[in-house]
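Forum > Structural Biology > Help requests

Title: Can anyone predict the 3D structure of LysR family transcriptional regulator?

Hi all, first post here. I have the sequence for LysR family transcriptional regulator but no way to get a structure on my laptop. I'd be grateful if someone could post the structure tokens.
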Amino acid sequence: MNLRQLEIFYAVMKSGTVSGAAKQLHVSQPNVTRVLSHTEQQLGFALFERVKGRLVPTKEAHLLLPEAEKIYQQLGQFRNLTNRIKAGEKHLTIGAPPILSAAMLSPLIAQLCKSGDYNIEISTGNQDELCDALLKNQIDLAICFGQDAPPSLVQKTLLTSEMCVITPPQDSSDEVICLKQLLSSDKTLIGLDSRDPLGAQLHQAIHALEPEYHPSISVRNYSSAAELVVHEVGCAIVDPWTAHQYKDRVHRARLTPTIDITVSLLYAEHNPLSISARNFVQQLEASL
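Reply #1:
Sure, ran it for you. Structure tokens for LysR family transcriptional regulator below:
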């Protein structure tokens, strides 16, 4: 007895009539009769007796019913599961550096949470921590700076932008500031840790001009660099989202030559994006 035959047998047993089973299953009565007859032929015994136009279950049918009911319930659970998968469980754990979590993800997450469709967890960390979390299946996807990722992770570019200069407001009003000018100035240029994707790019750009240059102050966190600028320790070269976050407290200028930066989507190759995760990424791309 295949699943279709089981479904029709169970429907007839529960409804007591062919017409009732056909209505329940949204099929025609002849279809139910045909499948039922074919099932009895395959089994080699009758499931129903036709008495005065009514179907009366045989003893064999009553013996089969408890097991059929178990299978039918499991089939229902399986269908519910496939429906949930199709719709998406809509539970996501997303990793991102603090600035991207706050500036890029927060508006979209707020919108999604208002609709009540998603249950979202945010895990913040640096690039190495997020890559490690992806490989351990602790997060579903990550939004990171840079294009470099371990071979076991899939990388997709979401957008590109440029690093910019932030200075104390009284130190400069220039719209464009040259990197060489910053390196030769008596003002402190706050460095970024070279283990960081943006820090590595900044380090490379600086050493292309001044191979022996070493910053007197270096930080791993972009907001820490901005806070030092606010406190007039010096100037810094940061991502545009950090600069925007501090726009009322620092002066922002374009950097020349430009240092291009990338924001990427990362996920584990062995753990492809779920339907919900793909929907989230599509909405994120549309919002950028």
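The mean pLDDT is 90. The radius of gyration is 32 Å.
Shout if anything looks off.
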